[in-house]
Specification:
The longest helix is centred in the N-terminal third of the chain and has 21 residues. It contains five helices and no strands.
Length: about 110
C-alpha cells in the first residue's frame, strides 16, 4: 500500500498547486489511499479479464479512453448491490476530501 499512499500524497500536492487549499496529514493520506484502493478493487473485480484485455489492446483508443472504457465496463457489469456499495464508497471518499479543505476555500481556477 506504500505506493498507493505515495501516489495519493502526490495527487493531493498537485491539487494544492492547482489552487485547492487543503490541510492534511499522513493519516488522511492513508485513509484516502485505502478508500481509493477499495473503490478500484471493486471496479476492477467487475470487469472480466477478457473485456479488460480487449479494451487495453484497442489501438484506436487513447490511454484516457481506455481507462474510461474499463471504468464504464465495470459499472455495466456490477450488480445493483455492488453498485450501491460503489456509490457508498465514493460518498465516503468525497466526505473525507471535503474535510481536508480549509475554510474560506476559493474555487480552484478562480482569481
Amino acid at each position: 500500500m506504500k505506493l498507493a499512499e505515495q501516489e495519493m500524497g502526490n495527487v493531493l500536492n498537485a491539487l494544492k498547486k492547482s489552487g485547492f487549499r487543503l490541510k492534511y496529514g499522513e493519516n488522511n493520506v492513508l485513509k484516502l489511499a485505502d478508500l481509493r484502493f477499495g473503490i478500484e478493487r471493486r471496479g476492477v473485480a467487475s470487469v472480466r479479464f477478457e473485456i479488460e484485455d480487449k479494451i487495453w489492446n484497442d489501438d484506436e483508443l487513447s490511454l484516457m479512453e481506455r481507462t474510461l472504457a474499463i471504468d464504464l465496463a465495470g459499472i455495466l457489469l456490477m450488480t445493483d448491490e455492488e453498485f450501491t456499495e460503489h456509490q457508498r464508497a465514493h460518498g465516503q471518499l468525497r466526505t473525507l476530501l471535503l474535510s481536508l479543505v480549509k475554510k474560506n476555500q476559493a474555487q480552484a481556477g478562480s482569481s
